[in-house]
Amino acid sequence: VAVAARESQVCLGLDPDPGRLWPTAHEAVGGGPPEARAAHAVLTHCGALIDAAGPACVAVKPQVACFERLGAPGWSALEAVCEHARTAGLLVLADAKRGDIDVSAAAYGQAFFGGTETPWGHVRGLEADALTVNPLLGGDALAPLLAAARAGHGGLFVLVRTSNPGAADVQELPLVEGGDVAGRLAQLVGALGETGEYGIADVGAVVGATAPGALARLRDRMPHAPVLLPGVGAQGGRVEELAPAFAPGRAGGLVTASRSVARAHEAAGGDPAGAARAEAERLRAAAWRIS
Amino acid sequence: VAVAARESQVCLGLDPDPGRLWPTAHEAVGGGPPEARAAHAVLTHCGALIDAAGPACVAVKPQVACFERLGAPGWSALEAVCEHARTAGLLVLADAKRGDIDVSAAAYGQAFFGGTETPWGHVRGLEADALTVNPLLGGDALAPLLAAARAGHGGLFVLVRTSNPGAADVQELPLVEGGDVAGRLAQLVGALGETGEYGIADVGAVVGATAPGALARLRDRMPHAPVLLPGVGAQGGRVEELAPAFAPGRAGGLVTASRSVARAHEAAGGDPAGAARAEAERLRAAAWRIS
Prior knowledge:
Structural class of chain A: alpha/beta
Shape of chain A: globular
Radius of gyration of chain A: 18 Å
Largest interface: A-B, 78 and 78 residues
Largest sheet of chain A: 8 strands, parallel, barrel
Oligomer: homodimer
Helix content of chain A: 40-55%
Number of strands of chain A: 10
Strand order of the largest sheet of chain A: 1-2-3-6-7-8-9-10
Number of helices of chain A: 12
């Protein structure tokens, strides 16, 4: 629905590096310890990036690691960035790649979705629309995360075939039963998801845009899964090769781009906001065309 | 070294549930929003648990999910708990099961180990002695985490065979090359680790104490790896079956127990601190005997 309304399948990655923020982020940082100042600058940077590129996007994907390294102020900045994105009408996909067993998985579900009941009252969670999760621990470890996601009408994106060169180390190991580990993970995604009224399931897959061959091969094991496609741009993936992602419909694929948008001005020149807006719009049009 | 000095291979799991803290944690919580009060109580609880059971242990293992669900105050509490443990002479193994690619993995390395250089000064990391990591993304994704660990003279514990019933879903898939996924992960652990002067490598493995058969089978692929053994107690693992863990020496295995120590009083009666101390000491003696 959000995809159709915005005519966009672009997910804006937010991976703020304190050493490479937009110049505007350095203004009005204020005082306090380094982590508070850095977190403030990161928040300003992400807000400006959302304001610039957001209109061409359907969602943001904050990389949680980039906030976590700034400690408690970083976590507060993450909450504020998510709020800023929601206010701009964007979905929030928390890229945290979490995975743990039973009560610990449930605790991550509380952290990223609805929150925690305590004797001192309700503690809000991040209230994300979706979370990236790691399936190495098996189906029972994903269940509490999926329950938490569904309680907030959200979903999960399960790592199936990542965009890095070393992904093959484990994910492409050939299995006795036929296929490889990624194929088995795709099957798990297909089995876990419940398909809603728009033909799109609530459990999706992360499949690197750097491996378009794998994408075509995995699609039939998870016909209704939305696919999150990182690796376009800085990592070398090309949006034109991703047509199989959109098999179940235009919302079947979300193209994510982070550095190629945030640092578009380094290649294209011009001010950071204008260059980011132009690059996000270029991606939006390219993805919409093939879908 | 730490193991020998303390004659203990017990790692105290810290998985605080705001709804089941020791009664002392409810005193002096103070005011403020629910997340600040809950985080304060969690910190008090963990401090009391460390003071009670710590003398029988060599390390603490905070479950990061339990802190993260309390937002920024939770992260501050995690930092304070780690500091408390270090002051008590205990190693800190952050149980976060992180895994991500290139720059994101490096950002997690900054978060959990040495910290981050920013234009506003150095932001401290958690300065953990070790971190649990998820190897699904392959060797190149673990490299930045290992580099960060080594820079602080720390190490990693890689998930190889987890303690949950669903672990078999992915980890025990039989491979065409022979063995299963867990076997291949054990081989990765063996290859990544550098063995120090005490015959123990700086890359270890997480192998559930609920699967002692798998432990014996995996040991020869990673002869020098320290093995973190969750699942003793509440999850049904028995310390008496874990002898293969200690093949490379007494520091070759770390037995972790969380709920069975923190909630020992629920079964044994008595005050929580005394029951926790007794249960931790019982585990310490049992593990030392078989090693």
